[in-house]
Design brief:
Shape of chain A: globular
Radius of gyration of chain A: 24 Å
Helix content of chain B: over 70%
Oligomer: heterodimer
Number of strands of chain B: 0
Mean pLDDT of chain A: 82
Distance between the termini of chain B: 41 Å
Number of helices of chain A: 14
Largest interface: A-B, 81 and 82 residues
Largest sheet of chain B: none
Number of strands of chain A: 2
Strand content of chain B: under 5%
Low-confidence stretches of chain A: none
Structural class of chain B: mainly alpha
C-alpha cells in the first residue's frame, strides 16, 4: 500500500505538468467557438457558433495551406524514408571507422537549430552574393532572386528538410539493421545469395515493422508541419506564401500578427482532429493487413 | 564558417566562397566590440539549458520509472495518460492563452523552461530502457528495508546512466536550440535567448540590405561588416553544441538502439 502511494508521488510532477500543459489546453479549445476577447478570458467571452470555422473555410486560404501542408509531408515521408533506408544499407556495408565519420556527418545537421540552418541556406541563395549565384555565373546563367520565386520552393524545402533530418532516420534504421541476427546472412551466403538478394529477402522484410511504425507516426503528423522549416528557411517572405505557407505558419501569423484568436484556434482544432483521425485510420488499415505491425 | 572568417570587402565584391579569398576576423571583432547583448543571450541560454535539462530529466526519469514498474496499480492508466498527449493536442492558441492570461508567464525566464519539461517521446525512450532492468534488484532493496524513494534514487538512477545521458543530451539540445518559446513570449531584451537573437539579427540585416539600394548610394554598407558578422553569429550560436556533440555520440547510438528495441 505504502509503496503504491510512493510510486504515485514519484509520477506526480510529470502528471501535474501534463495536466496543465496538455489537458487544460484541450478545454481551451472552446475558444474556437467563441468571439474571444483577451480581457474577458476564455469563459467570459461570447459564443460565436461556427463562425470562426465558416470564415476560415470560405477563404481560399483553407485549401492553399491544407494542400501545402499535406503535399510537403507526403514528399518528406517518401523521400526521407527512401534516402534513409539507402544510407542505412550503405552504412551497414562499411567498416568501423568509416561508419563513425559518416554517422557524424549525417547526424550533425539534425542538431542545428532552424535559425542556424536558415543562415546557411541564406548563404547559398542570397542574390548576387550567394554560393548558388556564384555557381550560376560560372555557367553564364542569369542570377535568380530565390526569395521571390514561389514555384522553386517546393524543391528547396524538400532538399533542406532532407539534409537536416535524414541523419536521424538513417540512424534508427541502421540500429535496426545491426539488430538483425547475423545467422540469417550466413545461411543466405551458404546458399549463394548475392548482396542485393540478401537485402531484398532478409534486411527489408525484417525492417518492415520499424518502417511501418515510423510511417504511421509520420502520417499522424501529416497535418502538422515543422514550424521552423517553413518559417525560417523561406525567411517569412510574403512572395512565397503561395507555396510555402502551411497550417502552422498560418496559425502563428493569425495569432501574433493579425490577432484573430478565434479563427486561429479553429484552424488549430481542425488540424488536431484530422491528425488524430489519420493516426487512428493508419493504425486500423495496417492492423487489417498485419496485426503485429500496428502500433496498438 | 568560411564566410565568417572572410574579409567583408571581398565578400561584397566576389560573393560568398567556400574558401575565403582573404582571411579576416573582422566579423568576430565587430561582434566582440559590443559583447553585452551576446553575453546576455548566452547566459540566458546557458541558464535555461542547465535548469531545464536537470529538472526535465528528473521528472522524465521519475514518471518513466513508475511506468516501468509492473506491480504499479495505475501503470496502464499512467501510460495512456502520457501517450494520449502525443496524439492529440490543443494546438497553439489555447497554449498561448493559458501561458499568457492564466499562468502569467509572458516575459519571464520560467516561460523558456517550463513548457519543455516533460516530453512524452523521451519518457517512452527512458521507459524502454528501464523496462529491461531486472525487477529482482528492486525487490532485494525492498527486503533490505529501502523505501521506494530510496531504491529509486540510490539504485535505479545510478544504473540508468547511459539512458540518462542520451535523454539528457536530447533535452539539452531542445533548450539550447529553442527559438520558438522566445518568439512567442519574450519581448524584454534582457531575456532574449541566443537563437532568438540570431533570428532577430538576420532580420535586421535583411532590412538594411533591402533598403540600401533606395538610399541613393550615400551609405557605405561596407563600413559595418554585416555579412561576415552575421555568419560569425551563426557560428557562435551553433558552436558550443557542435563541440559537445562528438563526445556524446556513442551514447546517442546506444540510446537510440534502446528506443528502437522497444517495438
Amino acid at each position: 500500500m505504502k509503496s503504491q502511494r510512493e510510486l504515485f508521488i514519484l509520477s506526480l510532477p510529470a502528471l501535474i505538468f501534463k495536466l496543465v500543459f496538455s489537458y487544460l489546453p484541450l478545454i481551451g479549445l472552446i475558444v474556437a467557438f467563441k468571439k474571444f476577447r483577451f480581457n474577458l478570458g476564455i469563459f467570459g467571452s461570447k459564443w460565436n457558433g461556427l463562425d470562426n470555422f465558416r470564415f476560415f473555410f470560405v477563404s481560399d486560404n483553407a485549401w492553399r495551406i491544407t494542400r501545402n501542408t499535406v503535399m510537403y509531408n507526403v514528399g518528406f515521408i517518401i523521400i526521407t524514408m527512401v534516402c534513409a533506408l539507402l544510407l542505412a544499407l550503405l552504412l551497414n556495408e562499411m567498416s568501423g571507422r568509416a561508419v563513425k565519420v559518416y554517422q557524424t556527418a549525417l547526424f550533425l545537421p539534425y542538431f542545428l537549430s532552424w535559425v542556424v540552418v536558415g543562415y546557411i541556406v541564406l548563404a547559398f541563395l542570397e542574390q548576387e552574393r550567394g554560393l548558388l549565384d556564384h555557381l550560376w555565373s560560372l555557367f553564364g546563367w542569369e542570377s535568380v532572386n530565390w526569395y521571390q520565386e514561389a514555384d522553386r520552393w517546393p524543391y528547396i524545402l524538400n532538399a533542406v528538410n532532407l539534409w537536416k533530418t535524414v541523419g536521424f532516420s538513417t540512424l534508427v534504421y541502421y540500429a535496426g539493421i545491426i539488430g538483425i541476427n547475423p545467422t540469417y546472412y550466413e545461411a543466405a551466403r551458404i546458399d549463394g545469395a548475392s548482396k542485393l538478394q540478401m537485402i531484398r529477402n532478409i534486411t527489408l522484410p525484417l525492417l518492415m515493422p520499424l518502417i511501418v511504425v515510423l510511417v504511421i507516426v509520420a502520417i499522424g503528423g501529416m497535418f502538422r508541419a515543422d514550424f521552423g522549416l517553413f518559417y525560417f528557411i523561406p525567411n517569412n517572405s510574403s512572395f512565397l506564401y503561395s507555396t510555402t505557407d502551411v497550417i502552422d505558419t498560418y496559425v502563428f501569423r493569425a495569432l501574433r500578427t493579425i490577432g484573430d484568436v478565434g479563427m486561429s484556434a479553429a484552424v488549430g482544432l481542425y488540424q488536431s482532429i484530422i491528425g488524430f483521425i489519420l493516426v487512428i485510420a493508419a493504425n486500423g488499415i495496417i492492423k487489417k493487413f498485419n496485426k503485429d505491425h500496428a502500433l496498438w | 564558417m568560411a564566410i565568417s572568417l572572410s574579409d567583408e570587402g571581398n565578400v561584397v565584391k566576389y560573393g560568398y566562397r567556400f574558401i575565403p579569398k582573404k582571411f579576416s576576423f573582422e566579423g568576430y571583432e565587430a561582434i566582440f566590440k559590443n559583447p553585452g547583448i551576446l553575453i546576455n543571450a548566452y547566459s540566458v541560454t546557458i541558464l535555461i539549458t542547465i535548469v531545464g535539462t536537470a529538472a526535465g530529466l528528473l521528472f522524465t526519469a521519475m514518471i518513466a520509472y513508475v511506468m516501468s514498474r509492473k506491480d504499479y496499480r495505475y501503470r496502464r492508466t499512467t501510460t495512456l495518460y502520457v501517450v494520449f498527449t502525443m496524439l492529440f493536442s490543443g494546438g497553439l492558441v489555447p497554449f498561448y492563452i493559458l501561458v499568457v492570461k492564466y499562468l502569467h508567464l509572458k516575459d519571464t525566464l520560467w516561460v523558456l523552461i517550463i513548457p519543455y519539461l516533460v516530453n512524452p517521446f523521451y519518457v517512452m525512450i527512458m521507459k524502454g530502457f528501464l523496462d529491461q532492468m531486472p525487477s529482482e534488484i528492486i525487490e532485494s532493496a525492498k527486503i533490505d528495508g529501502a523505501g521506494e524513494y530510496r531504491s529509486f534514487f540510490a539504485i535505479v538512477l545510478p544504473l540508468s546512466v547511459p539512458a540518462l545521458a542520451t535523454v539528457g543530451l536530447f533535452i539539452s539540445f531542445v533548450y539550447w536550440n529553442d527559438w520558438w518559446l522566445g518568439l512567442l513570449f519574450i519581448d524584454t531584451d534582457k531575456l532574449v535567448p541566443l537563437q532568438l537573437l540570431l533570428y532577430r539579427t538576420m532580420n535586421t540585416i535583411e532590412f538594411y540590405a533591402a533598403n540600401s539600394q533606395h538610399l541613393s548610394g550615400n551609405v557605405d554598407v561596407t563600413k559595418f561588416p554585416s555579412l561576415t558578422a552575421r555568419m560569425a553569429l551563426a557560428v557562435l550560436g551553433a558552436g558550443p553544441m557542435l563541440f559537445v556533440f562528438p563526445f556524446f555520440q556513442r551514447y546517442f547510438v546506444k540510446g537510440l538502439t534502446v528506443g528502437s528495441l522497444k517495438e
